[in-house]
Amino acid sequence: MDPNLVQWKCQGQSFLRRLRMWVSLLDPALLLSSDAEILKAHTLLGSGQKLDEKDNAAVNLSLSSLHADSGAALPLVFRPPAFLPISGPLVVATLLPHSNVKPALFWQFLLQSYNTGFNYANRNSSAEQGKTASLRQLLLIAGTISYTAVAGALPQIFINRLHVRSPPLQTFCRSILPIPLSAALAFLNVFTVRSEETETGIQVFDSNGMPVGISKAAAEKAVRETAFSRAALFGLTATVPNLLVLLLRRTRFFQKNSMLVAPCRHISVALVLGLMIPVSFSLFPQLGTIKRENLEEELQAGPVGSQLFYHRGL
Predict the structure, then answer these.
(1) Residue 118: CB partners within 8 Å, gap ≥ 6?
(2) What's the half-sphere exposure (Cβ side, CA atoms, 13 Å) at 193?
(3) Pairwise CA distance, residues 185 & 50, whole Å
(4) What is the separation, in whole angstroms, between the first and last Cα of the chain?
(5) What residues contact 134, with CB distance under 8 A and at least 6 apart?
(6) Which of 141, 184, 210, 220 qualifies as a FRET site for 190, CA 20 to 30 Å off?
(7) Is 171 exposed, middle or buried (0-12, 13-18, 19+ CB in 10 A)?
(8) Which of 214, 209, 204 is nearest to 289 (CA)?
(9) Angle at 231 (CA atoms; ends 227, 235), nearest 5 degrees
């Protein structure tokens, strides 16, 4: 088992411990570390020596920079600390009340492209070591970006194509419809980009970190958990600012000072997204568990009720 997975196992099943860990791992300053520093940190984790508090910096650097399956460095823009600085402005832009379809489609395309790349880079790759992305996977990625970008722009497409002029209908399209749409597209993005895992399976380990085999059941659980966590992230990020704007527009102060609504929307989107990223990443353990009886028949040999472990991905 990779040293990074061992560290995730040490975090246990406590949500609060995972949350504290993710708050540390999402520090953008970790992006400034060199490859040599990252390699040194990973070597320290794999040395087998007991780590103490002074080694926390090395733990954080390794977990935030290296893939837990391959041990290879993640692309800089797809590392967890880069998620908020890059996706934040894109999410703010996609939730703006655009005047026509082109800007809505443009910002959705950028957001969905980044989300697709992030989901693919942080997938579970335990069953594809040494393999390059297949043509089928590349087409799936391109299709995911295209379909989700168009679907994300549907509210603006409805307003323009159907010539929606009614204020209640415009409010529905701009403030209500994006909420379930954002959650559904985030779920779909993870589910489609990582669908190959559910077909090939992922590696499962026993309590000692020894590989037991490849399981499709564990892969389905891993992808489903990650998809739900991403749906929660983008769904709540769309919910709070949109509902807040609806409430603010009813107040006398904001009716007289309508120019303040936009800054409040931008700030609330960035704030909610920043708070929800560590929460959503912590909803499920990075090193998930699955009971033997829920695995394929050939992997069920062992004590009934015992658990095996798998890397969930991010």
Answers:
(1) 78, 83, 87
(2) 32
(3) 43
(4) 18
(5) 196
(6) 210
(7) middle
(8) 204
(9) 175
For the chain, the farthest-separated pair of C-alpha atoms sits apart, in whole angstroms, at 70
Secondary structure (3-state) at 205: strand
Asked if 45 contacts 2 with a C-beta cutoff of 8 angstroms, the reply is: no
Q: Helix, strand or coil for residue 33?
A: coil
CA distance 166 to 104: 20
Angle CA 223–119–140, to nearest 5: 85
Angle between helices 101-121 and 216-248 (to 10 degrees): 150
Helix axes 35-45, 3-10, angle to 10 degrees: 60
Other Cβ atoms closer than 10 A to 39: 16
Q: Are 143 and 88 in contact (CB under 8 A)?
A: no
pTM, entire model: 0.91
8 Å CB contact between 186 and 233: yes
Q: SS3 of 309, please?
A: strand
DSSP tag of 175: I
| Residues ≥6 apart with Cβ < 8 Å to 131 | none
Residues paired with 310 in a beta bridge: 204, 288
pLDDT in tens, the chain (314 residues): 566 666 666 656 688 888 988 998 999 999 998 888 888 887 877 666 666 656 678 888 888 888 887 778 899 999 999 999 999 999 999 988 888 899 999 999 999 999 999 999 998 887 776 566 677 888 888 999 999 999 999 999 998 888 888 888 888 888 888 999 999 999 999 999 998 888 888 888 887 778 888 888 989 999 999 999 999 999 999 999 888 888 888 888 877 887 888 888 889 999 999 999 999 999 998 888 888 888 887 777 765 557 888 888 88
Closest CA to 232 of 278, 290, 169, 164: 278
Q: What is the DSSP letter of 294?
A: G
Residue 12: its pLDDT value, please?
60
Check residue 6 and give its pLDDT. Answer: 60
